[in-house]
Design brief:
The protein is of the alpha+beta class. The protein is 22% helix and 46% strand. The chain has a six-stranded mixed β-sheet. A hairpin with a 5-residue loop joins strand 5 and strand 6 (99-107). The longest helix has 10 residues, at 2-11.
């Protein structure tokens, strides 16, 4: 699944290698609380990666699906093992297996699916 590879690469020590998973004319929308990041090329995505804060971030995928050339994933993001929020992402995968289009919505205020780490996360907040 292309989105699983994408998430694993973004969480790695070398997120710039994610660019190898993208079509040259890759288009994307990443909706974060209070802002959107939009791009129309692999180069735009490289700029997005370069502007991210280097943290111990992980995307834990709780649900995934594929229908033809569209993949979707839902999960939670942790930083340093602490819950930060949840995401719902979708991508169009090219015939060559690369991401052609991507959109992701991240929220810190709502969880669609309960996370098994929730109890641990709640304990760490208090």
């Amino acid at each position: 699944m292309a989105l699983r590879d994408y998430m694993a690469s973004m969480d790695s020590r070398h997120p710039e290698r994610t660019l190898d998973l993208l079509e040259p004319d890759f288009r994307f929308l990443i909706a974060l609380p209070g802002k959107e990041v939009i791009g129309k090329s692999r180069e735009d995505f490289a700029a997005y990666i370069a502007g991210r804060n280097p943290v111990d971030r992980a995307h834990e995928i709780l649900r995934y699906s594929r229908d033809g050339d569209v993949e979707t994933v839902y999960g939670v993001v942790t930083e340093g093992g602490r819950y930060c929020g949840s995401f719902l992402s979708a991508a169009v995968v090219s015939p060559g297996g690369l991401l052609a289009r991507y959109q992701s919505f991240f929220t810190t205020s709502f969880e669609l699916v309960d996370w098994s780490g929730q109890a641990a996360s709640e304990r760490s907040r208090t």
